[in-house]
Amino acid sequence: MSATSTSVNGNGKYKVIGxxxxxxxxxxxxxxxxxxxxxxxxxxxxxxxxxxSPHPHARIRGIDTSKxxxxxxxxxxxxxxxxxPAGADEVISLVEGTFRLTHLRSNILAxxxxxxxxxxxxxxxxxxxHIAEEALRLIEVDYxxxxxxxxxxxxxxxxxxxxxxxxxxxxxxxxSGKKSNIASHIQFKLGDLEKxxxxxxIIVEEEFNTASVxxxxxxxxxxxxxxxxxxxxxxxxxxxxxxxxxxxxxxILGIPVSKVKVVPMEIGGGFGxxxxxxxxxxxxxxxxxxxxxxxxxxxxxxxxxSTGPTPASYVKVKLGADKTGKLLAAEANIAFAAGAFPGxxxxxxxxxxxxxxxxxxxxxxxxxxVLNKPRSAAYRAPGSTxxxxxxxxxxxxxxxxxxxxxxxxxxxxxxxEGMRRVDGxxxxxxxxxxxxxxxxxHEHYQTPLTGPHRxxxxxxxxxxxxxxxxxxxxxxxxxxxVNLMExxxxxxxxxxxxxxQFAEVLGLPAxxxxxxxxxxxxxxxxxLTGGSRVTFATGWAAYEAANEVKxxxxxxxxxYWEAKVEEVRFEDGDFIHASDPEKRLSFKExxxxxxxxxxxxxxTGAVDPDSGVxxxxxxxxxxVEVDPETGKVKILRFTMVxxxxxxxxxxxxxxxxxxxxxxGIGWALNEEYFYSEGRMKNASFLDYRMPTCLxxxxxxxxxxxxxxxxxxxxxxxVGEASIVPPPAAIANAIYDAVGVRLRxxxxxxxxxxxxxxxxxxxxxAT
Amino acid sequence: MSRKLYVNTTINGEEIEFLCEPRQSLxxxxxxxxxxxxxxxxxxxxNCGACNVIMDGVLMNSCLVLAAEAQNRNIxxxxxxxxxxxLHPLQQKFLENASLQCGVCTPGFLMAAxxxxxxxxxPTEHEVRHWLAGNLCRCTxxxxxxxxxxxAADVVKETA
Lengths: 766, 160
Ligand code: FES
Ligand code: FES
Fold this sequence. Notes:
The complex is a heterodimer.
Chain A: E1 5-7, H1 26-30, E2 46-52, E3 58-64, H2 66-70, E4 74-79, E5 91-93, E6 98-100, H3 101-108, E7 113-114, E8 120-126, H4 129-138, E9 140-145, H5 152-156, E10 168-171, E11 174-179, E12 182-190, H6 193-198, E13 202-210, E14 213-214, E15 222-227, E16 233-237, H7 242-253, E17 260-264, H8 280-290, E18 294-297, H9 300-306, E19 309-310, E20 313-321, E21 327-339, H10 346-352, E22 361-370, H11 384-402, H12 406-413, H13 432-441, H14 443-446, E23 454-463, E24 470-476, E25 482-486, H15 494-506, E26 513-517, H16 534-561, E27 568-571, E28 574-577, E29 584-586, H17 587-592, E30 602-607, E31 616-626, E32 633-643, H18 650-669, E33 675-676, E34 679-680, E35 699-704, H19 726-738, E36 744-745, H20 749-765
Parallel strand pairs in A: 1-35, 2-18, 10-12, 13-36, 16-17, 21-22, 25-26, 32-35
Antiparallel strand pairs in A: 2-8, 3-7, 3-9, 4-8, 5-6, 10-11, 12-22, 13-20, 14-19, 15-16, 15-18, 20-21, 23-31, 24-25, 24-30, 27-28, 28-29, 31-32, 33-34
Helix pairs in contact in A: 10-11, 11-19, 15-16, 18-19
Chain B: E1 5-11, E2 14-20, H1 26-33, E3 52-55, E4 58-61, E5 74-76, H2 89-96, H3 106-119, H4 125-131, H5 143-159
Parallel strand pairs in B: 1-5
Antiparallel strand pairs in B: 1-2, 3-4, 3-5
Helix pairs in contact in B: 2-5
The structure holds FE2/S2 (inorganic) cluster (2 copies).
C-alpha cells in the first residue's frame, strides 16, 4: 500500500485548520446509532408506496383506484386529482437547478400524461409495506400509448414526438413561440471566432456522446410526513437542503412555508440528487387523509427509473491552435437531455466547457432538451464532466499532433487571474496552473509507465462552486464548550469542517465545539448542501458567529475585571487585561464565570457570500492497462490534484477528491442508463455497474492551496471538481495504451474492443 | 392476511423472539419490527452489502435472508460490534482514517470487515478489496476504507 496523500503549501498558519480531528458525528455512524431518513419510525406510522408508469410516454385516460382502496389494510390512495388546484407557476431556484412549480407537481403525481417509465401515477398508504405493494397491483390505469423519444439528438428534430403541448423554445431568453422539445437555446460569444480559426495552424473537431448516469447514493429517497389536525405538517427526510424541501412541499401543496417543518435526517449520500422533492408531498397528502404519519421509501429500481440521472449529452467541439500549441479559437455545440421537464445544467455546461483555458475567441451554443427520461438532477459539478470529456480529449489530440507534452500544452494555455471566460466572467486568483505544475512534479508523472497495452492520460477540470446563504448560531456553555447550530446537512464530514473554523477563531480545540444540524424551525435560513459551498459559506457563517462570541466575551471579561472593554484584548485563545497582563483568562476560565456576568453568550453568523468567485480546478493522472482480448480497462494508478484554497480538514478534502475520482472512473468506464424501447433495462446495482473496491487502486491525492481571495480562511470548496477530468484522462490513457480514441461514454469493453478491431483492419488495409 | 410465524433466535448474544410474516426478510424485521436500524438497506436485492450481518459465522446480506430462517441462529449486527468498554478496532480505525463520509454504507462495511478478520486476520490489500467487493460505497472511493481495515487488522493481531 503506497503512502499517498500530500498537501502542498500547508503553511502552518493555523492551529486547528489543517488538523484531522475525529468527526463529531463519527461514533454514532460507526455504531449504527445515527438515524437516517430511511430509519424513521413513528408511533402508528403507515407505509406508503408509489405506482409508477411502465410506459415512457402515454396519455392517462383514467385511473381506477377502487379495488386498491378496498383492500384490507389500505388506508388511503391518492392521485394527481388529490393535489390542491395549481396556483401561480412559481419558479423555485435551488442553487443547482431551477424548478417550475407546475413541473415539480406533475413530476410527483402525473396529470394527464406520463412522460417517462417510472413517472409517479398514484400513491397508497397501508398498515404494512407489503399490503401497500399489493394495493399498487390493484390500481387500474388506462393508458393510451404515445410515441417516445429518449435520444437527445432525435428529440431535437422537428418531427420528434413532443412531450409538452405548451413548451416553446426560449431563444436567448426570449420566447420564440416555436413548439419543440428544445426548452431553451443559450449562447456565449467571445472575440472573433472566424479570425481565431483562420489564424490557427491546426484545427480539430469531433462529436462526443455521454450516457445518462446516476448519482448512485446508497440510501434511497425517503420521506416521512405527519400532517396534524392543526394544519402543521412535519416532514422527516434525507435531503441536501431542508429549506428547499420546505419551499417545494409548501408550493406543491399550496400552503404557507410556515406550516411546513422539515427535519433533515442523516443523509446517505446525495451528490446533487437529493435536492428535488420526490415523495414528501405524496406522504403529506396520505397523512392528511389518514391522520397518521406516513413513510415512503423508494425501491432501488424506483431510484434509478424515477430520480435524477445526470443528463446524457451530445457535445461537438472544434478547437484551433497555432504551431506552438497556443489555443486561438474554440467552438462548442452542447445538447443536454433534461429528461421529462426542462432544467438541465446546460448553463453550467456552457460556462465550464472552455473554463480551463485562456482562449481569446469562442462561441458556445447550449440546448436544454426534454425527452422521455426521468427529470434530470444535479450530479457533482453538474454539466462540467460531459463537456470536459470532449475538450480534454481534443487538447490531447492537438498536443499529440504537435509533439508536445500534454501537461506543457495545458500550462501554455492555463486559465489565470484576470482571464475572461467565454461567458464573460473574469477570474480572480485561481489555482489552475498550480494543479498542473503539481501534477507534472508528482512522482507519478515522473515515473515512466512500462508494459504492453498500458497508457497514461491526463486531464484538467473546473467547477465554479457556489456561495449563498448560510446561518450558524453558537451558544457558550459554562464548561467552556460551545453548542453550534447550523443549517447544512452533513453529507461528508462538514460538521467537523464548520466546527473547526469556529474553533480556529477562538483558539479552542475542535472537540470543544458541539455542532448540530438544525431543522427549518430551529436554525436560520440556509441553502442546500451543494455547489461545494458548505465548508466555504457555512464555514464563513461559523467564522462570523465566532467573532461575535469573541466580542461578547471581551465585554464579559471587562465586566469580570471591572475594566473598560477597550482594556481587554484577545490573544492566542486568552482574554488579557491590557494594562495588567497578570490578568489573563482562558476561554474555559472565562466561561466558568459566565453565570455571574449577565446575559447568555450567543453569536450568530448569517452570510450570503458572493458565489462564482471561488472556482476549483483539478488535474488528474490515470494509468491504465487495456486487455486486448476483451477491451476491459484496468486502472493501474490514479492521482488527483485539486486546489482546495485552504484544506480545513485534509482527510475529508482527500475524501471528496477520492470519491469524485471514483465516480468519474465509473462514468468513464461502466455506468450508463441502458435503454431499449424507451425503457431502462438495468435499473439495479447488479446491472448498473458502479465501481467496487476491487475495480479501483488507491487514489492518490495532492491538495494544492491557493487561498480564496475573499474567504476569511481562504476556503474554496472541494466537493465537486474531482469528478470532472477522470473520463477524459482515462480516454487519453486508453489512446496512449492502444491507439484508439473513444468519443462515447461509457468506454465499455465492447466499444474499446471494436475500436481496436477497426484500427487493426485499417492498418491491414493500408 | 398471512399467518405469522414464531421465531426464536440470538442477536448480538441475546435471545430474541419475534413474530413475522413468511414473506418478511430478516432485514425488514431487524429494521422495522425490532427497531435495530443500524443495519441499512441500500438495494433490497443483494447488490450493495449495506444490510450485512453475520449469521452463524457467515457474512450475509440480510435482505436475502427470510426472517423465518433466523430460527435457532446466532446473528451479529452492527449494534453488537462495540462493547460497553469501547469501540471495536475496526470502528476506531474507520474514525481515525475518515473512512466514512455519509456513513450509510459503514455498518455493512464494518460487518463485512469483521467477518474478513475473523476468517483471515492478516489480509493483504488485495484480499481486503476482494472480500469487500460486495459492499458498495459511493462516497469515499474506498481508499480510506481499505486503509482502515488493514490498520485494524494490525491492532487485532497485536491484541490477540
Ligand atoms: S440491502 Fe441487502 S445487499 Fe443491498
Ligand atoms: S460513506 Fe457514503 S456510501 Fe459509503
